[in-house]
Fold this protein.
Amino acid sequence: MRRITLVIIALVLATPLGALKPEVLGSVDAIPAHIAGRFREPAGFQQSASGQFFVFDRRAHKVYGVDERHTSSWEIVQIGSEPGRIIGPTAFSVEPQGTFVVADAPYNRERIQVFTPAGFPIGGFWLPGRSKPRVVFESFVLNGIGSLQYTGASILMSQPETGALVTEYTLRGSVNRTFGNLRHTGHEDDRDLHFALNSGMPLVDPRGGFFFVFQTGEPVLRKYDDEGRLVFERHIEGREIDEFVARLPTTWPPRTSEGELPLVIPTIRTAAVDTAGNLWVTFVVPYTYVYDRDGDKIRTLQFRAAGITAPNSLFFGPKWRLLVTPGLYEFDPEPGESAASDK
């Protein structure tokens, strides 16, 4: 028996890191079909501390509420270009007390509005200039206002054209600060391409500081402290994504007309930080890596609902449930039976 145990230990130690079979998290709940069928394209599924769910329906240009028991839904914000309504929305973010922001672009001008949990507008502002969709995936605009994160007191966005990775706005629209140096891309002479390869997701760590995940090009994450100082940088690697990363383009054809933008596809679909401060990163290929607060990879995951699901949004609810779109599914993020049962 001792010899068999030693052999098993030796085999485990000899297995390359990241070569183990990924955990598979099975959904534990979902918005029922008779309610979910009302939504055209749920692009955000989040929850406030009160238990109320919010569904951001991008194609319908609306935000809905769903009660905690999944028995009813109602419209919170309706379609329209006037203040208090939304048109052409690209991003959505809820803070724990239930106020939320929606980014849209009426007349191709970027706008951010702040709403109460009941949908009453309480603030907002326009961004200067015209929107430039540098990073698009499956009709989702991921750069600029598409990257926003709402803290309740400020709004974080990826705007590399400012010369920094993260721009923090007050709720009145003034720039509070910028932080994070742009990374070297080798395309500094091509302004739009350089900025596209520096686009990413700024994320708040509830334990303090911020993560920034580069959403295009070579996958990299950075951690910043509360003052915006760099704590560490980690390259994101793993056998599940090696082939995809190896095929990423390194050269782009010259544009033939003025105003034409380079086609840059994302490497990362979405990312989120859980209440313990762990970073969850989901790729265009259907895998998710989890990193601890020191930047070490601790888990490799796939999500199973109606088959393997490739999330386009992640949100950690107040009751330690992971909310995922598409599909409006809920997952238990703890390792356990849902992972073990698929092995």
